[in-house]
Amino acid sequence: MTRGGRTKTHDEAERRCIATGESQPKAGLIRFVVGPGDMIVPDVLERLPGRGIWVSAERSALETAIKKGLFSRGAKKKVTVPEDLIRQVEAILARRVIDLISLGRKSGDAIAGFEKVKIWLSEGRAKVLLQALDGSERGKSKLWTPEGGRFFGCLTADELGLAFGRQHVIHGALAAGGLERRVVEEASKLRGLRGTYGEFVAGKDTKDA
After folding, report:
1. 112 within 8 A of 160, measured Cβ to Cβ
2. Is 76 exposed, middle or buried (0-12, 13-18, 19+ CB in 10 A)?
3. How many whole angstroms separate alpha carbon 174 and alpha carbon 185?
4. Cβ of 39: how many Cβ atoms within 10 Å?
5. pLDDT in tens, 139-160
6. Which residues, other chains included, contact 108 with Cβ-Cβ below 8 Å and sequence gap of 6+?
7. How many whole angstroms separate alpha carbon 79 and alpha carbon 165?
8. What gap in Å lies between CA 105 and CA 99, rounded to an integer?
């Protein structure tokens, strides 16, 4: 079992977090590389060239890595860490989640709106419940986490709105298959960066399935 509660599988590539010293599947970590001018650059998509430096997708881990100068240790040379590195990572992850949900919407695997989401939940079509972190707690409590599924409240109403082509959205849902796994992985990282501020557990479901 990993720090985030995910069950390890033998075919998942693992990396060691420079802040915690623990190894875990890459899905729970954020990759960084040394860019031009020896500047640390976040590589959320894991495509940039160079030796990867890995940090758990948790704000506390990133804060530790920055405060203790662990990026230089991981790079094996003196590097510069941007003052707004955490904000950069958070913004990139938010954009990533928004884009993935948008792709799901275009393929018919994601819907928005209280009534539509409620129908999907009732019919068992929804696998992931998405709710705005700044939405009404009373309204959000009327929906529930899909059985065996996930709940995320790490995007604002404006950010969810961008994903669905609207001004703002409070309730959304994602069907099983398609982009579900990628959305779950990226949203989990974003939640780790943003913490649980403004997020509650939908309905009576108190487990992070």
Report:
1. yes
2. exposed
3. 13
4. 13
5. 999 999 999 999 999 999 999 9
6. none
7. 40
8. 10
